[in-house]
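Cont'd.
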Amino acid sequence: MSPPKQPPPLKIDAMLDDAETRILVCCGSGGVGKTTTSAALAMRAAERGRKVVVLTIDPARRLAQALGLGELSNEPRRVAGLDADGELHAMMLDMRRTFDEMVYAHADPDRAEKIIATPFYQAISSSFSGTQEYMAMEKLGQLAATGHWDLIVVDTPPSRSALDFLDAPQRMSDFLDGRMIRLLSAPARAGGRGLRRIVGAGFQLFAKAVSTVIGGAMLADASAFVQAFDTMFGGFRERATATYSLLRSPGTAFLVVATPEPDALREAAYFVDRLSTEDMPLAGLILNRTHPVLARLSAAKARDAADNANGPTLAAAVLRLHADRVELAEREDRLFSRFAGAHPEVAVARVPAVAGDIANLDGLREIGARLAADGYPEHERSAALGAAR
Amino acid sequence: MTSPGWPAAFSGVRLHVVSGKGGTGKTTAAAALALALATGGKRTLLIEVEGRQGITRVFDTAPLPYEERRIAVAPGGGEVRALAIDAEAALLEYFEMFYRLGMAGRTLRRMGAIEFATTLAPGLRDVLLTGKVKECVTRTGRDGRYVYDAVVLDAPPTGRVVTFLDVTRAMADLAKAGPIHSQADGVVQLLHSPQTAVHLVTLLEDLPVTETLNTVRELDAADLRAGALIINKVREQWLPDRSVAPAADGRIDTARVRNGLAAAGLDLPAEVVDGLVAETVEHAVRVAAEAAALARLDSELAEPMPRLELPHLLGGVDLGSLYELAEALVAQGVHVRQTSGASA
């Protein structure tokens, strides 16, 4: 069997150093390490001299502490403790506050207060499934508009599907434009004759059924919200559209993060395909938390020798854990080569798993080094492998 | 505290809700549990509610339509059926029962009106889904016995599961009277009874453990019953306990390793030995982190919880290895009580 063709390497440092790179968006399905990756990339860029802000969505407590983020950090704050000429600023998306600010920005104070007070607004600004994505885009738009930053690194919300980041704003937009709410709350007057002809009397029945089930009060509330919202909606949508086109601009690059697991790689593949249909620039794939084999010795040979060892010696334990690692690495390679076979043009950086959590800036710096090295960086290889010599 | 094993009370549970943080292997654990409970001639139903066809991926079958289908045969003549509940279809089905929508129903669905209605009142979606679950749990055949010995629900992830199960709160969103209301009362009763247990899947890592602890508190506050902790992807620990801490610190006696290898008949070049030692350090760091995570569960849980463990499968999970996981659960005591007649 010939060895599988190697994918092109993802040159992280060249990308971070390029003044043309203005926005980096880290996408991927939930639980693959997007937040940590975003923070590590931002930190590396800052230590290489750029003025960087990282927008994190829901960082683990210790990562947030490492970045100096308290609970209410909806504005960028400078991170102290970098070895750098550049600057790193970090923030955490506060979805509710971002939404409130947006309402205030588009409506006069009176009306804004009124909108914010409706229970319906409360529900939609905190629990609607696309709100987080929508607000992340809004925040990105705001950060870009300041012209303040050399580089903006964006983490995306922890959804099941990476595509949600691209789709949710549209869904949210459709929802807020109020056509459906008007239809449901006053079906006789709204919707236009064409639509009524299609669904006929069924629609009246449906509207009645819906209001029986979810309650007339809820519908009336929703409808009041939409009316109040209507006047500001134009600005709202325009803004979302502008941000979306920012994602298409030449200064933006997407990084897809995946772990070597079937689900994560499948999501990554969907996302890569989608970016190409949307003409959005893909920088590459970050294959996160790999377990490369560090010693050239086959699993079978290691297990045989462990069986030959005299009882449970240290050497036997070492051989067995090595055999497990070889099997894990083989599985990871197999899964990845399936992805690479279908997407041979996608550049890749592999990041070996770091055992334990990232609790400080050194931990992030280490991840950054692994990202840039496409594996273990030189200093570590010599430290780990040269210790005994 | 956590204690290994499956308490006797769980064998009488009829609805096993399985949740967990995204990425912990919730669907795999739910599938293994359904298979374990069906072992020895039982019939179980595995339900998913998020429209992601996760069950079919685990069992490697074609996408599920909105109907109950046999999906696997369990050891000892049992069977697992599966159902993917589609909230929109459930709502339409529901409306059909009370209002004749005819063709309009499908058109409305295409227009997104159904999705819209369930978006407008997210509680509505949850009430419909849990309503269908309850119907499956309590359904009896002609002989008066329950159709399913147990139902396993692959529930939404920990972030949303308590809201999902808190039907009482969801009903506050909805009309104060009407057909859905009377049905919901029965759902509330089932979910808060000893017939329901909410199992939480976790990995021994910081973030999932934190989320698990939070969820246990939330369940308690909502008066829902936490079931077992299912620790997933438990890896083999090869190092003896006393070697873990020093090895995690990088203190490994390389000469001893080299001599041990030689004694086992392996004369390896220095860089291979060094590689093995580096791998051992990583292994030890991970083992130590997992032990710390387990200690956190033990010390921070207010009430003791039973604990089940699923081994990490190096080759990944396929249909064959799903049986391995189910077997591991059976070996830890997972079973359904013999009597399966519906109480009158």
